[in-house]
Amino acid sequence: MIQDIDLSNLPKHVAVIMDGNGRWAKKQGALRIFGHHHGIKAVRETVEACVELGIGYLTLYTFSTENWNRPKAEVDGIMSLLVKTIGEEIPDLHKNNVKLKCIGDLSQLPAKAKKEMEDGVEKTKNNTGMVLNLALSYSGKWDILQAVKKIAAQYKTEEINLDDINEKLFDSHLATSPDPDVDLLIRTGGDHRISNYLLWQSAYAELLFMDDIFWPEFRKNHLFDAIKTYQQRERRFGKTGEQVKDKK
Ligand code: IPE
Ligand code: IPE
Ligand code: MG
């Protein structure tokens, strides 16, 4: 229930690995793409729940670099679904003051999907509410490498010197910049891995594996439950439990 949530202790940045669409579909004797279709309602509920709570940043793992290696029919199906869904969802996102961003190697996307994304980003760019990052053709290693390349180029032109390279500068070149690091990382579907997601940004994230839920089943109350679990965690950032408690 939303009422049990302490609004003064919300994660600033929630990231989700939306996993289990294919297995959910298979369980009903349907094709994997049926699961992806049903995942859209779960996305809508998650966005709405985060907006209701006042979460600042939500980053959804929509399609990974590695997902390009799936059978062509599934990749094509996901890409057409993306085009259709983004177009349909933008008015509601806009109404909710959500600012849509897209992180990942967008040059890999089919032209239509890229165009829909860019239009959505443009339409919502002045919104001041929650930032919704769709990680598309994204991987954590890709993100780190593209940041390294930008920093190397700045070093080469002597815009920066070696001592300027620190965490803050590195952060500023990541695809998620200027968003804060991830506080809570949720994965549905039963697997306990990061799958090349926000590797740098999740350095101190609380990890929550919601094993009993396939992504198409995810609803607002699951998100509220996840926040409640997060609020029971003690985040120590390397300090002792006593130090953290004394500060409270
Ligand atoms: C997540 O569900 C969606 C994408 C990766 C695009 P999966 O498609 O990975 O579903 P499972 O994990 O095979 O059940
Ligand atoms: C991670 O799920 C990517 C997305 C949810 C978009 P996968 O299903 O691709 O991850 P692995 O292959 O099981 O690690
Ligand atoms: Mg999966």
TrEMBL record:
Keywords: Magnesium, Metal-binding, Transferase. Gene3D superfamilies: Decaprenyl diphosphate synthase-like. Its cofactor is Mg(2+). Substrate binds at residues 20-24, 32, 36, 64-66, 68, 70, 187, 193-195. It holds the Pfam family Prenyltransf. Binds 2 magnesium ions per subunit. It is an enzyme of class 2 (transferase). CDD domains: Cis_IPPS (cd00475). The keyword Cell membrane does not apply. Mg(2+) binds at residues 19, 206. Transmembrane segments: none annotated. GO terms for molecular function: transferase activity. The active site is at 19, 67 (proton acceptor). Its EC number is 2.5.1.-. Belongs to the UPP synthase family. Homodimer. Catalyzes the condensation of isopentenyl diphosphate (IPP) with allylic pyrophosphates generating different type of terpenoids. This is Isoprenyl transferase. It comes from Lacihabitans lacunae.
